[in-house]
Amino acid sequence: MENTNAALTHSHTFTKNQKWVIASTSSGFALENMDVLFLSFAMSSMIGQLHLSGGAAGLIGSITNLGMLFGGIMFGLIGDRFGRVKTFTYTIFIFAFATAMMAFANNITLIYILRFLAGIGAGGEYGVGISMIAESFHKNQIGKMTSVAAIGGQIGAILAAITAAIVIPRLGWHALFLVGIVPVVLTYFVRRHLSETEEFVAAKKVEAEKKESTTSAVFKYMFSSPKLAYQSFALMIMTTVQIAGYFGLMNWLPIIVQKQLGLNVSGSSLWMISTIIGMSLGMITFGSILDYFGPRRAFGIFLIASAAMVFTITLAHNTISLLIIGAIVGFFSNGMFGGYGAVISRLYPTEIRSTANNVIVNIGRAVGGFSSVVIGILMDNYSLTVVMGFLSILYVISFITMITLPGLKKMSLKRA
Q1: DSSP three-state, residue 118
Q2: Model pTM?
């Protein structure tokens, strides 16, 4: 498999299976993010119709994040033990079914249950999908390929915005969630066209010979020594900062700018689209830098640039400048997202790759999601510069953490 992938790296062609892997993971991430973001667009309608308090409504997102953490751990272990392809389809089915069932939810208790289930499926999908990419492509392609898959998630955000704009005014928020069943169609194509990689099958044979369980392997490679434990916790810090920056950028900055600078941005659609375009371009650029020059240089450039660029938001004096700056900030701040899956996949062995990705990234999601609360408090009590300073400090912390990781230093900076 390695020799085949090496030859394909230089010929710039992909096998049929590689094409299906990247198409399936990109589509899966897009549809998962679309389903998750339906909540954001339906929230105001749900609050009004169901007479929800602010606290009750805010808890919906937190419960979804907790579901992602639980699902990430559970399906990470399942994917590492029983196979990536089947597990990938299970996660898609769960988040699609739970999202569609929201169409029949008329009380907050049922909403909490369904969003927790949707989070389980969404959280489980990430690590399994990233593992399929890591085991299907040469190591000098993984950064770009995981970034391509991450762009799928951004496309899902645009699909959510467009679908919500069409469906909610005409049919209401219940009908919007019914659209969430669409991803189930993807499971048919995944099951029909994908099979487990040679690398995964070989790893399972070795594991069987050693008679070592997946759970014990996870502990052995993630937390059994101070060095490995530090590596795992350091990566969790980096993903937490990544998610915190994303939530700050997408949820609060438009509101902050409108309030502090008096700009009139018609809705959040223009901001979201321009920022997503910047993010997508950043992901492709970051993935290429990571593959050619290594993770330390790639993360170093983007983290330092993010720490500096968040302050440019204070330079926005009209709608056009706000959208341009949003795209630039998005380019650096979220361009790194696909790189975490590439790095984690190379730092941890095949037999626990799915679990390692899911645990590290979903802990980042669960903790980083609370940045919205911190930013909201800062927004109420301090200036825009202080709020941007908070985000900037987070990126500096991530940079310092990154340069202390010995595993990243050992990664080859040369193309094989």
Answers
A1: helix
A2: 0.80
